[in-house]
Design a protein that fits this description.
Blueprint lengths: L1 H29 L4 H4 L1 H9 L14 E3 L6 H7 L4 H7 L13 E3 L12 H5 L2 E3 L6 H7 L4 H7 L13 E3 L14 H5 L1 H9 L2 E3 L6 H7 L4 H8 L12 E3 L32 H17 L3 H15 L26 H4 L2 H9 L24 H9 L11 H11 L1
Antiparallel strand pairs: 1-2, 3-4, 5-6
Helix pairs in contact: 7-8, 11-12, 13-14, 13-16, 14-17, 14-18
């Protein structure tokens, strides 16, 4: 009995202590003065007043020797430079590959420093014709493949196309007529077919396979006729030879499209499908919101057509994405931001409202862009390996602006 009584008392004590404590706590909470709420105010003020984190960067030297693991983006970030500026100062494009030991200029004034730059200026230029290869051109001018690639900001994955102008950096200016080298380049059979053959103006969405089926030929024949490899890229407005040696049979099928080659440059279609028209309206709306000129909007429209056929795609060369094929790996935002059509358009325009801030260079950030030729202004932003394509869409861009603006 005594044991049970002690146990009961113990339980009562255990229950009584928390009750007392709770009573004390509740009394303290109830009695808490109003200033206690105000005590949190200084905390909020301190959070708001936290200083911005400063990323330490090194002062940019005049030139920099590429180290293993470097990329143009990481070098630019290290020295607080824009990737686009570093590419422009060194005659590179977004497709260019840098390698350890290569010297890069890190200031516009030092652009002439690289030894390779003066050579192309003094050297001749070559206009690419059907059947040309970089190897054949290099042999013709007594130089090397690497020299031709370097002189034109190309790499070994780049594709050349008829009508493109290449600087040839051969040391000997008299060597353009190199001995037996022209023989492999001549490719007599395709050249003969080219003069009397039928051509097709590539439209958005065309593929070599589809063109071959349309004209009753094969992809292999199209590649041979145009001097292309299987990894070649075709683009809207490009003229493709479609007539093989027996040009008679295929002719009837493509009769409706055969009229296009009549004029000097191929006429590009101004018509847009539903998806393209919606993206054109978005670009125009963003341009209006930012208060940019009609010319700036037309440049954006033409650029989006060249880069993505005015489609907000989630694929592209390397990690290029979206309407303007912006690359997350070179500072243009995250992959999700690159396929955000509204944001990517604002990044293309740049200026004070650029979502990327100073990390990238948009059209409005380029001094004197208003006075640049249409295609040069677009190229200054995109730094493409194919700088001449944007101007091909200038007329159509203004038509889209009038139709959808």
């Amino acid at each position: 009995m005594t044991t049970h009584t002690a146990a009961r008392r113990t339980r009562y004590l255990r229950l009584g202590v928390p009750a007392a404590v709770l009573g004390t706590l509740s009394g303290a909470l109830a009695a808490a003065p109003a200033p206690a709420a105000a005590a949190s105010t200084p905390t909020v003020q301190r959070l708001d007043a936290l200083p911005t984190r400063v990323v330490s960067t090194e002062a940019a030297p005049a030139s920099y020797t590429v180290q293993p693991g470097d990329s143009v983006y990481t070098i630019a970030t290290r020295f607080a430079l824009r990737t686009a500026d570093v590419l422009a100062w060194n005659g590179l494009s977004w497709r260019s590959v840098i390698h350890p030991g290569q010297t890069l200029a890190l200031t516009g004034a030092s652009a002439p420093a690289p030894a390779a730059t003066p050579a192309p200026v003094a050297a001749a230029s070559h206009t690419v014709v059907s059947g040309d290869t970089v190897f054949g051109i290099a042999q013709k001018y007594g130089t090397t493949v690497d020299s031709v690639l370097a002189a034109n900001g190309l790499d070994r994955s780049s594709v050349i196309y008829p009508g493109q102008t290449l600087a040839v950096s051969g040391p000997a200016a008299s060597a353009p007529v190199a001995p037996p080298a022209p023989a492999p380049v001549a490719a007599p059979a395709p050249a003969a077919t080219a003069t009397g053959g039928t051509t097709h103006a590539v439209a958005a969405g065309d593929t070599l396979f589809g063109i071959a089926q349309r004209y009753g030929t094969t992809t292999a024949i199209l590649l041979a006729l145009n001097g292309l490899g299987r990894d070649a890229i075709i683009y809207p407005g490009q003229s493709i030879l479609v007539a093989a040696a027996p040009a008679g049979p295929p002719a009837p099928a493509p009769a409706p499209a055969a009229a296009e080659p009549a004029g000097p440059p191929p006429q590009l279609s101004a018509g847009l499908d539903g998806e393209q028209a919606a993206n054109a309206r978005l670009i125009i709306a963003v341009g209006r919101d930012l208060g940019v000129s009609d010319r700036a909007i037309a440049i954006a429209l033409a650029t989006a057509m060249v880069e993505s056929s005015l489609r907000n795609v989630n694929y592209g060369d390397r990690d290029s994405l979206g309407l303007f094929q912006q690359r997350p790996s070179t500072g243009w935002g995250t992959p999700e931001q690159a396929v955000d059509a509204d944001r990517s358009t604002r990044v293309f325009f740049g200026g004070a409202g650029d979502p990327n801030g100073q990390r990238t260079r948009g059209l409005l950030d380029i001094g004197g862009w208003q006075d640049m030729p249409f295609t040069d202004a677009a190229q200054a932003v995109q730094i493409s390996a194919y700088p001449d394509r944007y101007g091909q869409w200038e007329t159509q861009a203004y038509q889209w602006l009038a139709q959808h603006g």
